[in-house]
Specification:
Number of helices of chain A: 17
Strand content of chain B: over 45%
Largest interface: A-B, 111 and 111 residues
Mean pLDDT of chain A: 93
Radius of gyration of chain B: 31 Å
Number of strands of chain B: 54
Shape of chain B: globular
Mean pLDDT of chain B: 90
Strand content of chain A: 5-15%
Structural class of chain A: mainly alpha
Order of helices and strands of chain A: HEHHEHHHHHHEHEEEHEHHHHHH
Oligomer: heterodimer
Low-confidence stretches of chain B: 1-25, 861-872
Distance between the termini of chain B: 55 Å
């Protein structure tokens, strides 16, 4: 016969038996991801920078798609009408689902690049190995890239840290974003030169040229575009561009790369695979309106040779991953961020601004010669030549919106009441996902 | 040395048992008999016949017969009870070695307070002793022709238990919500137990996102004896963390002593798509080229701007076919009883999309599901005080569903989101690509049928239960079980599937494969002690502990770009991707529960549970859930006798239960993200070590009233529940780098409601009985606190989904644009003011397309303060300016009847209703009415459009059409939701069955014990609010899903689902 005392012990014993091993089984780790502690380790430094490279790629591809649809480089042909809003020039809507989806990717790229810079600074001071110093230079380059793109594409931005929200810098202060980009690139150049790493030197110098040139362009369009005097004064950009050109051939490019083993290019996936967008069917590519996903030919005609522009053809062949531009195409198409052509055009613009037509012609024709086009010899006005060359040679490199604003170019798809018509110079907004979650910024 | 001693003890013990069993048998006898309905003399199947408190019991078979073995010699009370009948008790003296016959007849009762329930009480307890509501559902309906799975068995049976279908594809699983939602972010499905062990009830990770089946339906319905449902926190406290959504416990059938008894059932079902629920396709010619194409493709001669239709919908479907075959056998001896069942079902749904196109050697998609199911239960009673039960269940399922849902590559959208004028068959100048149904973008319907999504799953559940009664008042019970699901999914696009060279995705092929393994281990030990103090006071103490370990492993791979046709393996792809995810959650808990009874009419129960869970943050180790409930029977207390109010019970309960955060949400993590420069990482989860369970506190009070000598009953329960520490999937500023939402215990959710039920026998005689029932549940929910977090929108940035979590509103409420209630609701000049009629006529002096102007709206779908730059579209004040309604009805319930006549015929019918203050988003229709690229093909909108675009129309006609367009057709960005979120009150004729039981003497001639023939129907008719514009208010885009904002609250939004089909089933069931 069981006693009352022993009966009372039963549940306690059962509970104890269960809970004793529970101490261990309740300690469940997450093997799928890295922890905060792991990220701070020196062994993770390279991965941190690589992550910044990847997130820059994702952020820029995502951001550029909405940005370029608003220009005359890409048009909407699919089903998701918020792309159509951008196509019509309504870029300021913070609730546009696509700019709202792009903003976090850019924001994360910025934060991750800053984290890489801070972390690599610490590691480089403690263990200044060649590999660590190289990663530090790469981190600064990536930070310079993403800050430049933010400056080129965003009307405003915020720089929070984890759950510590920060106010927006304000549209008028966005030049400071370029300043920060240039500062990062200054260090990237310095570190790369110390390492004698030619590839890093070329990339950092070229990006600094672009950042300095874009900062000058930004000053041309803010607060309103100065279309009467669109050419920028960017001496630093010119010296960087010349330094790059002295080091590389005219076919040199620095590209953001994608691959099946890393990540796909969102813009290429949307255009080549889904078929939601197409390159501008009004002025760039030829399509059948009943099946606009298939490119039939090149519409953009070189103003001197009066032939379909070979730069567009080359771009599309690379974009599709095939010489036949009528196919669906790759989802890993690279994006060019800077190139020798870009450098030439920075120098040419500066020369044109200084009325140095010899230098202008030298650099314009260096660009044209690369694709076998006839030299410019004043067949058309020099400014028109510059504008055209920037369109054709820098196609889908993220510079078109600033050019359209400062040169007074409008897209025929822009609605008369659109932001881009009514408030030219306006760039992409801080979107609702940030506005609604950041207590320092008014809600949507 | 110790091992040797243990081995010797075990051998000797076993020998003792073997030798002792025959001796024990000589001290016992057997009881047999038949149980019938007292009014109709119909044999009653599934009646529990038992001898309390010995634990000896059995169920009646299809002829109402039972056999009790190993009954100790002596006098006993043979007790019979069945849901819906008054308990019957008969004294019997059983001599040693004798077989005694005890026949029993049961009278129907509308109130069943003596029914033994288990769930929530820990041990078997009479319902009248519990202060909380508990539902018991008899599984008999599975024997009729109108029910073919467990979800259907639950649907419409009890107030507050909502079974929500997903749509009309074969095998689409249903979601279950009990008393609304208990979580803003976590899974809102109730936890499922089968015979005491937890089974996995997460959604299949189906490759057809909205077509997935429910794991609940893996359980063969023939194996189920009854289902108990705990509706909320007050009742489910002893289930602790994860129980605040309620608990469903399924009890499977156990064997019946005696010779093997076989039951065979064959069902044949015809499935019909209700095409009257789908708007026909319309279009008109915009150009001469269109006229030519229309002539060539459809053989119609039309003029420019002349609306026309082609009756295509009937060609998309045929009559689907479902077949089910099941065999069960039960039997046993004095010491061992068994029940074994096997079932095979096969369904080919009515969607016949593949038949529209010729065979070209590529596999075409079907709408099919095949299931093979088996269950085997064995109960062994080796010695008098020990009972060992072994329960197993196995299911194998294969399902293919056309690519569907919110998916540009879906088949159904590409057959309905089309322009008839663009359809063409022969490639030429007017037909750049073959496009037989006139798709406007992305993919032709023909190409879409070569995508093959397929899911295969194996599901095993096994448990061992040992029940030991060392002394009469003490019972020890231990259960150990495992539930294992192995799911394989594939999605295949063959090389060259772009047969019309229209689609541009994966034209060289793609194959995605995934394997998911989920294992849930349950260990449950409990002890109960029952005592009586003096004559008036009873006490039952229960203590126990539970442990759960859930582990899920997912591995997947994708191969893209095959080198040539014929390859169907992922490894053949030039580009290959792999993924792997591992998840584990452990929980341990202990509970204590004490019930005190006074004179059998007053009962007070107090209890509590403590849980520890691996998902809790470091700051919170355990969760504590107390409960208290009381039950009083005034009619017994005061000896009240009244024919009118024959039984009255009052009850009240308060209790807490919880819901855990997801397993790894507490950690700050970085996810792998390689770049072309090497392996890398990026931020993933912000982390929160303060995470803890969200806790629901529920109070309920109710009464059950038996009327007219319990021939009728009425029950009412008022309940109110508050979820504190509600876990909100909070978005922190994305500029901080962590862009994924982070779980945070910052919310509060309040809900309350009333559950009502009434049933009764309105007439009963030997040849006719009529039973009516009605139940309804009233539900109101409100998010009372979001902890300062911003409103959360379903669908992320996808602006077309308009359901939000907003403080002060019901979860999943709709917000969006609404047309201004003015004479000319048009914003023609961007001024956001109504134009004068003269100005409007001047505007419409020329032909116009709706893309050129926008309606005047009182609020829009997401812009901020109006600016001149946005003026053409923005006349509102932000995304949350206009509340358009909630997604859950005020009232949901069932009306039905059961009719028995001529002794052998039975008719059952059931209507389900959802009524009052709820809306549904007809997003499919919004596309079809509005979208210039892939829509504008409904009759009304096509006709309005043709007038506006026709240069021959008058300005007056264009203006009137534009006004109607603004009020009826306009939609999508930037005015998402406008004209498409409308009241969706509806009544559905859910079930009808007619059953004929062949007289026993007749079937006996063929060696059968029983036979029945049934004809049943489901979803026969739908009556819906006139304002509703969609196909079917029960077809929703999120399908059978798990947790998260979209799954929980993207409810009542339809995007490219199919309406729910009618099903007519012929069923034959025989026993021998």
């Amino acid at each position: 016969m069981m006693t009352n005392r022993s009966i009372r012990l039963v549940p306690a014993l059962v509970a104890g038996l269960i809970l004793m091993p529970a101490c261990d089984i309740l300690d469940v780790n997450n093997p799928n991801n890295l922890t905060e502690e792991s990220i701070g380790a020196a062994t993770a430094a390279n991965a941190l920078v690589n992550g910044a490279v990847a997130q820059n790629a994702r952020g820029i591809a995502t951001q550029w798609l909405g940005y370029l649809i608003a220009t005359d480089e890409i048009v909407w042909i699919g089903s998701r009408d918020a792309w159509g809003q951008l196509d019509q020039g309504f870029v300021s809507n913070p609730a546009n689902e696509f700019t709202d989806a792009a903003f976090p990717q850019v924001a994360q790229a910025r934060w991750l690049a800053d984290l890489a810079v801070t972390t690599l600074d610490g590691h480089a001071a403690e263990t200044p190995t060649n590999a660590m110093l190289t990663d530090r230079a790469r981190a600064y380059l990536q930070a310079g890239i993403i800050y430049t793109v933010i400056g080129e594409t965003q009307e405003d931005f915020a720089f929070s840290n984890k759950d510590e929200a920060k106010p927006a810098v304000g549209p008028a202060q966005m030049a400071t974003v370029f300043d920060q980009a240039i500062s990062y690139l200054d260090d990237a150049v310095t570190f790369a030169q110390a390492l004698s790493d030619d590839a890093l030197i070329n990339r950092s110098l070229a990006m600094r040229a672009r950042a300095r040139h874009s900062r000058a362009q930004w000053a041309k369009i803010k607060p309103t575009p100065n279309t009467a005097d669109p050419l920028v004064d960017a001496a630093g950009a010119v010296s960087d561009a010349l330094a790059v050109l002295a080091r590389v051939g005219d076919d040199w490019r620095y590209q953001i790369e994608f691959s099946s083993s890393t990540l796909s290019n969102y813009m290429a996936s949307e255009i080549n695979s889904r078929g939601e967008q197409q390159f501008d069917t009004t002025s760039v590519v030829l399509v059948n309106a009943a099946a606009p996903k298939t490119i039939l030919g090149i519409k953009l005609m070189d103003p001197i040779d009066d032939i379909p522009d070979p730069r567009i053809l080359s771009f599309l062949q690379e974009w599709k991953g095939d010489t036949n531009i009528g196919i669906a195409g790759s989802v890993y198409s690279p994006l060019t961020i800077v190139s020798a052509k870009h450098m030439h055009l920075i120098v040419a613009e500066d020369a044109l601004r200084d009325s140095d037509m010899t230098t202008f012609a030298t650099h314009i024709n260096a660009v044209r010669a690369e694709d076998g086009l006839t030299d410019w010899a004043a067949q058309i006005p020099a400014l028109d030549m510059l504008i055209y060359e920037r369109r054709a040679a820098l196609f889908v490199t993220g510079v078109r919106m600033l050019d359209m604003y400062r040169f007074g170019i409008t897209d025929p798809l822009w609605a008369p009441q659109s932001d881009m018509v009514e408030t030219p110079g306006v760039l992409l907004p801080i979107t609702c996902i940030e506005k609604d979650s950041n207590p320092e910024i008014p809600d949507c | 040395m110790m091992r040797t001693r243990m081995l010797r003890s075990t051998v000797l013990g076993s020998l003792y048992l073997v030798l002792a069993l025959p001796l024990a048998a000589q001290q016992t006898g057997r009881v047999q008999g038949r149980v019938i309905d007292a009014a109709t003399n119909r044999p009653l199947v599934g009646v529990q016949v038992f001898i309390p408190p010995t634990g000896i019991g059995n169920l009646t078979d299809s002829d109402g017969r039972y056999l009790l073995q190993s009954v100790p010699a002596g006098t006993h009370s043979v007790t019979a009870q069945r849901i819906g009948y008054r308990q019957a008790v008969q004294e019997v003296t059983v001599p040693a070695g004798a077989l005694v016959t005890v026949d029993l007849s049961l009278s129907q009762t509308a109130i069943a307070l003596d029914e033994i329930v288990v769930t929530g009480a820990g041990m078997g307890t009479e319902r009248r002793k519990l202060g909380n509501s508990i539902v018991s559902i008899n599984a008999d309906r599975a024997n009729t022709a109108s029910v073919s799975d467990v979800s259907q068995l639950l649907a419409g049976r009890e107030p507050g238990v909502a079974v929500l279908p997903s749509g009309g594809y074969t095998g689409q699983g249903a979601r279950i919500r009990i008393r609304g939602s208990s979580s803003l972010s976590q899974n809102n499905e109730p936890v499922i137990y089968v015979d005491g062990i937890r089974v996995d009830n997460t959604a299949f990770s189906s490759q057809t996102p909205q077509g997935g089946a429910s794991k609940l339906d893996d359980i063969p319905p023939e194996s189920i004896e009854r289902i108990e449902v705990l509706k909320g926190a007050a009742a489910a406290t002893l289930y602790g963390t994860e129980a605040s959504n309620g608990v469903i416990q399924i009890f499977t059938k156990k064997g019946r002593a005696g010779a093997p008894r076989f039951t065979v059932q064959v069902d044949q079902t015809a499935i019909d798509m209700p095409l009257n629920r789908v708007e026909p396709l319309w279009d008109f010619a915009y150009s001469d080229d269109d006229i030519t194409r229309i002539q060539d493709r459809w053989g119609l001669n039309v003029d420019l701007y002349e609306p026309f239709t082609v009756d295509l919908l009937p060609t998309y479907f045929d009559t689907g076919h479902h077949q089910a075959y099941s065999v069960s056998v039960t039997g046993g001896s004095e010491f061992v009883n068994y029940f074994v069942t096997g079932r095979f079902t096969d369904e080919d749904g009515p969607a016949a999309f593949g038949d529209l196109f010729p065979d070209i050697g590529l596999e075409k998609i079907n709408d099919t599901q095949t299931r093979a199911q088996a269950a085997a239960n064995i109960v062994v009673s080796p010695i008098e005080k020990v009972r060992i039960g072994v329960n197993t269940m196995y299911s194998e399922m294969n399902q293919t569903t056309p690519n569907n849902g919110n998916n540009i590559y879906g088949v159904w959208p590409n057959l309905t989101q089309t322009h008839l004028r663009l359809a063409c068959g022969e490639v030429g100048p007017l037909c750049p690509k073959e496009n037989l149904y006139g798709t406007g973008a992305f993919i032709t319907a023909n190409e879409s049928i070569y995508q093959i999504p397929e899911t295969e799953a194996n599901h095993f559940t096994g448990s061992v239960n040992v029940n030991y009664t060392p002394i009469t008042p003490l019972r020890l019970d231990g259960t150990f079980g495992i539930d294992f699901v192995n799911e394989s999914g594939t999605f295949f696009r063959p090389f060259g599937w772009n047969v019309n060279e229209y689609v541009t995705a994966h034209v060289e092929g793609l194959r995605f494969i995934s394997e998911q393994r989920i294992r849930v281990v349950t260990a449950d030990f409990k002890a109960s002690w029952e005592a009586r103090f003096a004559d008036d006071i009873t006490n039952r103490l229960l203590a126990g502990s539970q442990g759960f370990l859930r582990q899920a492993t997912t591995r997947n791979g994708t191969g893209v770009r095959f080198p040539g046709p014929g390859l169907e393996v992922a490894g053949a792809g030039a580009d290959q991707f792999i993924g792997e995810f591992w998840n584990r959650n452990t929980q341990v808990g202990v509970y204590l529960d004490n019930q005190v009874g006074w004179r059998d009419w007053a009962f007070l129960t107090a209890g509590a549970r403590w849980d520890a869970n691996s998902a809790f943050g470091e700051a919170f180790n355990t969760a504590f859930y107390p409960k208290l409930n009381a039950s009083i029977l005034p009619t017994q207390a005061f000896g009240w006798t009244s024919d009118t109010f024959s039984t009255i019970r009052l009850r009240a309960a308060i209790g807490k239960s919880g819901l855990q955060p997801s397993s790894f949400a507490k950690f700050t993590t970085y996810e792998p993200q390689p770049s072309t420069e090497g392996p890398g990482v990026r931020p993933d989860n912000l982390g929160n070590q303060n995470l803890r369970a969200e806790v629901a506190t529920e109070i309920e009070a109710g009464a059950e009233v038996g009327l007219f000598n319990d021939r009728a009953s009425f029950n009412i329960t008022y309940w109110t529940a508050d979820v504190q520490d509600a876990i909100v999937s909070r978005q922190f500023a994305v500029s901080g780098g962590f862009i994924n939402r982070q779980l945070d215990n910052i919310g509060e959710l309040h809900k309350h409601g009333v559950d009502l039920g009434a049933q009764g026998t309105v007439y009963e005689s030997r040849n006719l009985s009529i039973n009516l029932f009605v139940n309804g549940a009233y539900l109101q929910q409100e998010i009372t606190d979001m902890g300062g977090a911003p409103a959360l929108k379903t669908g992320g940035s996808y602006s077309r989904y308009r359901q939000y979590l907003v403080e002060g509103f019901a979860p999943g409420s709709f917000f969006g644009a609404k047309t201004a209630d003015v004479a000319i609701p048009l914003n023609l000049d961007g001024s956001c003011t109504e134009p004068s009629r003269d100005d409007a006529l001047a505007y419409f002096a020329v032909a116009r397309d709706p893309g050129e102007f926008k309606p005047l709206v009182v609020a829009n779908s997401g812009f901020g303060t109006p600016t001149s730059g946005l003026a053409s579209h923005n006349c509102g004040e932000g995304s949350l300016a206009t509340y358009l309604g909630k997604s859950t009805p005020d009232w949901q319930g069932t009306v039905g009847f059961n009719l028995g006549f001529l002794g052998n015929f039975e008719v059952n019918s059931l209507w389900e209703f959802k009524l009052g203050n709820f809306v549904s988003h007809d997003l499919s229709g919004e596309f079809r009415r509005t979208h210039a690229g892939i829509g504008r093909n409904t009759e009304n909108c096509v006709k309005l459009l043709s007038v506006m675009r026709n240069p021959s129309s008058t300005a007056d006609a264009r203006l009137e059409s534009a006004i109607d367009w603004a009020n009826q057709c306009e939609g999508l960005a930037p005015l998402d939701g406008i004209n498409s979120i409308n009241p969706a009150d509806h009544v559905r004729w859910r079930e009808l069955s007619v059953t004929y039981r062949v007289p026993t003497p007749f079937v006996a001639r063929f060696g059968l014990a029983s036979a029945q023939l049934s004809v049943g129907a489901r979803n026969l008719a739908l009556w819906v609010n006139d304002a509703y514009t969609g196909m079917d208010p029960e077809a929703v885009t999120n399908g059978r899903c798990d947790a998260g904002l979209d799954c929980n609250f993207l409810d009542n939004t339809d995007l490219w689902q199919l309406p729910i089909p009618r099903r007519i089933t012929f069923s034959t069931r025989v026993s021998f």
